[in-house]
Amino acid sequence: MDSKKRSSTKAEGSKERGLVHVWPAGSCSVTPERLPGWGERTVLQAALGVKHGVLLTEDGAVYSFGTLPWRSAPAETCPSSPILEHALVGQCVVTVAAGSFHSGAVTESGVVYMWGENSAGQCAVANQQWVPEPSAVSIADSETSPSLAVRILQLACGEEHTLALSISREIWAWGTGCQLGLMTTTFPVTKPQKVEHLAGRVVLQVACGASHSLALVQCPPSQKPVPERCNQCSQLLMTMTDKEDHVIISDSHCCPLGVTLAESQAEKQASTAISPSTETRDSQGEVFENTHVQHDPAVANKLNVGNVQTTSGDAVPPQLDIIGTTETSSARNIPSDPDAPAGNEHMQKLSDPSKRENSENGEKPVPSQPLVEDAVPNLHSPPTTSTSALNSLVVSCASAVGVRVAATYEAGALSLKKVMNFYSTAPCEPGAQASSSSIGPEGLKDSREEQVKQESMQGKKSSSLVDIREEESEGGSRRLSLPGLLSQVSPRLLRKAARVKTRTVVLTPTYSGEADALLPSLRTELGYISRVAAGRDSYLALVDKNIMGYIASLHELAATERRFYAKLSDIKSQILRPLLSLENLGTASTVQLLQEVASRFSKLCYLIGQHGASLSSFLQGVKEARSLVILKHASLFLDSYTEYCTAVTHFLVMGGFQLLAKPAIDFLNKNQELLQDLSEVIDENIQLIEILNTLFFLPTRRLHNYAEVLLKLATCFEVTSPDYQKLQDSSSCYECLALHLGRKRKEAEYTLGFWKTFPGKMTDSLRKPERRLLCESSNRALSLQHAGRFSVNWFILFNDALVHAQFSTHHVFPLATIWAEPLSEEAGGVNGLKITTPEEQFTLISSTPQEKTKWLRAISQAVDQALRGASDHPPYGGGSSIQRQEPPISRSAKYTFYKDPRLKDATYDGRWFSGKPHGRGVLKWPDGKMYSGTFRNGLEDGYGEYRIPNKALSKEDHYVGHWKEGKMCGQGVYSYASGEVFEGCFQDNMRHGHGLLRSGKLTSSSPSMFIGQWVMDKKSGYGVFDDITRGEKYMGMWQDDVCQGNGVVVTQFGLYYEGNFHLNKMMGNGVLLSEDDTIYEGEFSDDWTLNGKGTLTMPNGDYIEGYFSGEWGSGIKITGTYFKPSLYESDKDKPKVFRKLGNLAVPADEKWKAVFDECWHQLGCESPGQGEVWKAWENIAVALTANRRQHRDSPEILSRSQTQTLESLEFIPQHVGAFSVEKYDDIKKYLIKACDTPLHPLGRLVETLVAVYRMTYVGVGANRRLLQEAVKEIKSYLKRIFQLVRFLFPELPEEGSTIPLSAPLPTERKSFCTGKSDSRSESPEPGYVVTSSGLLLPVLLPRLYPPLFMLYALENDREEDVYWECVLRLNKQPDIALLGFLGVQRKFWPVTLSILGETKKVLPTTKDACFASAVECLQQISTTFTPSDKLKVIQQTFEEISQGVLASLQEDFLWSMDDLFPVFLYVVLRARIRNLGSEVHLIEDLMDPYLQHGEQGIMFTTLKACYYQIQREKLN
Questions:
Q1: How many beta carbons lie within 10 A of that of residue 1218, not counting itself?
Q2: Hey, which residues does 1014 pair with through a beta bridge?
Q3: pLDDT tens readout for residues 925-935
Q4: Residue 1131: DSSP 8-state
């Protein structure tokens, strides 16, 4: 199974990576071989000690091989194949390290495991010689309380010590020796301790030699360079003395730890044999070292020198310090290496040719600098090629025993460029001589001092990229040797050291004949080496096989990206920066555009630097193509290139390159050769400006390289695999963007050529960086129809506007609001184009049909592109790049009017249709007016919001509601700046129809509220006016904003007036009642002023007839006759009974006519009942849909149940066939739903009626005199709503009609009183007789119940007080006593009761237990609303009584009223219903008439009789 899997993945070019090859040290012939016993498992990391090594596989497993004396099992001390460290299984190890004789590993969670030799405490275990299995090391920070575990990032091992770098960038050390950097002399240190010398510094990496340590730290930012000489004594801050056998570096002037000393001179140096041209900069780096050397010639003879060749151009971290501590001791007896003399002899042979070559080149040979004192005489280090200071420092300490260099460190991550062996071929071979001479004089200037200037800049970061800063590294190199006799305990800063030369041999295939001739390669090519490791006795390399060119493509991508970054760095430092530093570059806009180009360039450069560093790290990982940054974050690269190209084309269009010619001519001339080299221009006759232009567009070429490499990688996978599809799609994206940016460049150059020929004055106003020319009428004949003979009309089509130029004037038409269509042949315009704009319409005539087609297509495409708003964005991302044939007629755009008198200077932003605002939009005027809502044909139409500032009051008028043809029309809310608020109907910007006006607030001087009918902005018709300040409420007719006609006034003091009003005054006949029932009926002349003939009736019945004058309550003059009715003996002499109230009030059917008329109009009827039913239903559906759409943007307004209700109401109920009870129930259900939402016309009607009813009868209107008016008003509502319902459902029978039963009743129900079969004709059921109350009261009455019942309670207050007093008095009696008092026959007395399942006997003291179920049932009458529901409660109470009696008698019986009444009276008393009188009167007033003589009617009469009987009961 494993082999099958390997073969499939191998075909995709994704395996045979991380293969382990080893070869012995000190041998002249290098033949790497596969590690014995190791299969093809992928190894990500390896580390070597003296005689052992560790491997980390891709699945996080750790293996050990070599000589393992610490293992407990004898077979494992010298295993034939690597053995698995079982203790680390499942720990997810991320990095491993090896010391001379011990090993370490770090897990993903930051835990350190150590094993191996522990004689010096290097495994952090006390009193133990060996640690056979990996054991966790406890690293805790004792400075925190409580102490916290420290997470580790990196581990480094020496011979007798170990260093760990924590996630907080601090170093922890344990083991033995001063190389730990700890302030202690007690060894071994088995508990990890923090290196306090580096506290507060940011440590980036640590490395250990056998007896020394190095730390790479970040320098603190310095404001100015530190001088090379001391400011006080003028001596060199650092000196170097070259002895015969060692080198002494003196840094006595070195500042305390934490203060860096920067070198003062910078030198430009390029290595032509190794790296491309790179930028020279100053470098701020620190090397701190602590060294203790003991003399041991035997050891020295066995130490060899190594080096790594690197390619510059990668991003490196800013401001790096390297800090080290060193101790070389001979405490351990290292076995002699038999190949060492041969290797040393070979090194000696190499020294002479190098001297000769250096002499021939005119340079002095560099004296040798052995790593250790007492080295072999005349032994010179091999010559070295260019390496960075950072790499050289790591070279000097990367090996655990100081023998070989393992790898380099750049950009904050391990990055392998090329791995070089340190043994060359024999001097007689031509390659050996060529390798030195090919470097050239520039590469061998070892006597100079160098610096690398580093610069960081902030930019856009990708989450997957290495977090580095942008910089450019110098192509030079630096080699720092360790001093021989310096003994230091604490870390010290290393500044300078001599540079030596080495020869190199490549291990990797170069695929270059020239390179093969210059550098002698291995006889056996291994493949692509990702990592190397060096021990004392052997070397190790991790090799990737280049299956199907997969690995080669990845390395090609990494190498070209580094070279590309080097070129970008050169352009930025050598071209862009000097240009920006020049003075008088031109106008501020030009400088700003150039700065924008530089900013985008730096951002792109930064991204490429990040990408190069991430690729270096990527090449040491699993190397899965899907993890490539240019795939995972393709949009980041695409956007960065697009933004940069956009900035360059803007600069080009504005003539930036031409404007640079004069101020930058000197700079360009001096650097012409550099410009040609960087821009890759071969033609020497080309102008400098063109070269600069080419140079600025150079980065876009990189997109083609991305596409090619991704396509190569795609060919390594199966066509059907997801990886292939992903790579193919990404390659297409990069290629499409490259073509797109190329077109953008051509458009910019075409536009620039146009501006050179365009008149200067108009150029200044029309020329914009983002504006591109598409076509113009000078080269495409186009003229204006009906233009004057001598007029000049020039039409210019840009990517954002159509410009009509005439002589020295021009007008700009934004493309987003242009509609172009060809004229038909019938209209006489064969070659005509009709152009429509919001305020103009004109016709363009072309010379030929072809020109017409070209212009029409150009305008349509430009408009469509302008509407998309993506002209500068790449065409990737699905089908968004598909070009439409013509732009949509309906669109969204922004426009400022300039002609229309009503809209002049107003700006509209919203939907358009054929040149006019149509749909949702926002219209703003310069004076602050604003309309936000829907438009139709250019006018406000539909639902919208309008604001008008009121400068005088520093507030604004605010209207929210419906519009029609630019005017307020329909329902709306208008909030005036004065504080008034009107809610109601509008017509032609005026209040017209039903509406509510709130004036002022309760704290203002004259707050009031009016609800009623309006005509042409004035109160007219029926309305209710509540004067809150005076405590009066008027309910009557209005005309021209004054009370005119019949009306009723009630006051908070209980006064009641009904009668005539004229010009807001009580004038004419009227009736006035006071709270004490004093009544005046007669003539009035003013408010509350009696004047004329009338009758005054006292509460006791006495009355006065005559003439009255005076204001009520202030003294009235009376001329008349006083009558005492009780003195008359015969009825004929008594005065006529005072007629009922309400005769002078407005009839109920005349009230709120505007509300019902509005509902009829919504249904499409001019007058009630006059219209088409189908049209009414259509209007309902339209209203529901429109209201749902209006509330779509505010989902919180409508709940989910309300939304479902609206959806069900949109379906028109269909009824076919004879009308039945089922259809009646369907109508009833529909009405309940319709009246439950104000979005339905019927629901809005009900909501408005409820509002006006409460407005009328709440507050001051809660007057008992208004009860009958309130009841009449409800009955009027029922009648008029029923008319609406019958219009919508024509099949609904008339009021009082009986619906025939569709099927006989399943069972017969006995009559309550007779025991005979119930006859439906004698006692019809409510559900079977069509009545307005039965159909509509369940919907209407629950909403009107509170104010209505309050009026009933006020009206019956006195008699209910008497009733309640009797109830309380009689309920003091026990059940038996009360039953006896009420005359209940003893056979109906309950003997036993069942309470909670237990049977108990009724005792004389038992109270509130008899007929308990009937009592509870009757109490529910107060929880119901409609009379039918209350009657059902009464009926259920009677049935509960019968059930109780049947259970007691155990036999059938027939009720008689004489037997039933006392029992029911008992139940009523025990129910204790507080407002029983109000309940009785409400049922009596509103119950269906046909129920009065049925069974429920009889039961209701019984309840009514009980109510009056209780008031007359007296307890003896």
A1: 10
A2: 993, 1019
A3: 999 999 999 99
A4: G
Tell me 74's DSSP state. G
Residue 1339 has pLDDT above 70, yes or no: yes
615, 623, 602: which is closest to 563 by C-alpha?
A: 615
Residues facing residue 102 across a β-bridge: 116
Which residues are within 8 A (CB) of 835 and not within 5 positions of it... i.e. 6 or more apart?
802, 813, 818, 819, 820, 841, 842, 843, 844, 859
Contact, 785 vs 845, CB < 8 A? yes
What are residue 924's DSSP bridge partners? 907, 930
**Residues 6+ positions from 1275 with CB-CB distance below 8 Å:** 1148, 1486
| Residue 1174 backbone zone (phi > 0: left; psi -120 to 50: alpha; other: beta) | alpha
The two tokens of residue 1203 are 């939304």
Q: Are 1289 and 1162 in contact (CB under 8 A)?
A: no
Q: Are strands 291-293 and 320-328 parallel, antiparallel or unpaired?
A: parallel
Closest CA to 404 of 245, 540, 496: 540
The 10s digit of each residue's pLDDT in 233-263 is 556 666 666 555 555 555 555 443 333 334 3
Residue 851: burial class (beta carbons within 10 Å; 0-12, 13-18, 19+) = middle
Q: Which amino acid is located at 624 in the chain?
A: E
Please, what is the angle between helix 1427-1449 and helix 1412-1419, to 10°? Answer: 180
Q: Looking at the predicted structure, is the pLDDT value of residue 505 above 60?
A: no
Query: Is beta strand 413-414 parallel, antiparallel or unpaired with respect to 285-288?
Result: unpaired
Burial class of 1322 by CB neighbour count within 10 A (0 to 12, 13 to 18, 19+): exposed
Task: Say what the pTM is.
Answer: 0.63
- Give residue for tokens 């070259």: 242
CA distance 1375 to 1393: 12
How far is it, in rounded angstroms, from Cα 78 to Cα 164?
A: 29
Amino acid at residue number 1403:
L
Q: How confident is the model at residue 1214 (pLDDT cuts 50, 70, 90)?
A: low
What's the one-letter identity of residue 575? I
Please tell me the distance from the alpha carbon of residue 862 to that of residue 1221, in angstroms, as a whole number: 66
Apex 505 CA angle, 502 and 511, nearest 5:
135
What are 1204's two structure tokens? 């479902």
**Contact status, residue 649 vs residue 744, Cβ threshold 8 Å:** yes
Q: Please list, in sequence order, all residues whose beta carbon lies within 8 angstroms of the beta carbon of residue 653, skipping any fewer than 6 positions away.
A: 748, 751, 752, 755, 767, 769, 771, 772
Chain position carrying tokens 């070979």: 346
- What phi and psi, each to the nearest 5 degrees, are found at residue 181? 75, 20
pLDDT of residue 456: 31
pLDDT attached to residue 1303 = 54
572: nearest Cα among 550, 551, 545, 603 = 603
Q: Is the CB of residue 1317 less than 8 Å from the CB of residue 1311?
A: yes
pLDDT of residue 884: 63
Which tens digits make up the pLDDT trace of 1462-1500?
A: 888 889 998 999 999 999 999 999 988 888 778 888 888
Q: State the Cα–Cα distance between residues 1265 and 1075, nearest whole angstrom.
A: 10
> Which residue's entry shows tokens 């006071």?
1074
Tell me which DSSP letter residue 572 carries: I
* Tokens representing residue 216 in the block: 């790479």
- Chain segment 369-403, per-residue pLDDT in tens: 333 333 333 333 333 333 333 333 333 333 333 32
pLDDT of residue 1489: 82
Q: Around Cβ 1189, how many Cβ atoms within 10 Å?
A: 12
212-218 and 409-410 strand pairing: unpaired
Cis ω on the peptide bond leading into residue 1293 (within 30° of 0)?
no
Cβ distance 903 to 921 under 8 Å? Answer: no
d(CA 97, CA 105): 6
Position 1141 pLDDT exceeds 70:
yes
pLDDT value at residue 680: 85
Tell me if residue 375 falls in helix, strand or coil.
coil
The tokens describing 1340, both together, are: 């209407």
CA distance linking residue 924 with residue 269, whole number of Å:
64
